[in-house]
Design goal:
Radius of gyration: 20 Å
Structural class: mainly alpha
Number of strands: 0
Oligomer: single chain
Amino acid sequence: MAAARRPEGNADTAAEAVRKFNHATLPTPRSRTGSLHYPGQAYSSVAAFKQMAQMLPQAFDQTGACLTRLHLDGDLTADHGTVEDHVFDARQALTEAAHCAAMLAEALNRAHSAVASLGYSGQIDE
């Protein structure tokens, strides 16, 4: 049986997927929109980004909870300062990031709804 994928590997995969999307949609001399040509592609892309943003608060909360658990179990050290201060700062920043992700998800939801009404009237590439 294959070993379970490590959680940081999943986060790396998500970051790499966004990097690939950015690269694929860069304007080129042949295409002003890279490989993004139709509103349906934008609709699907926004939907995926919205779904990712909706799941980020839970990921940030669980990451912070892990740090707290490790701290309470006495399993952390710090290169400088106190472990407690670093865990507190990390938890605070992750809570802020979760709030920002929730705001991002809401904005993407509005974008998704707006793109839903768009159709393509140009020439379709073969």
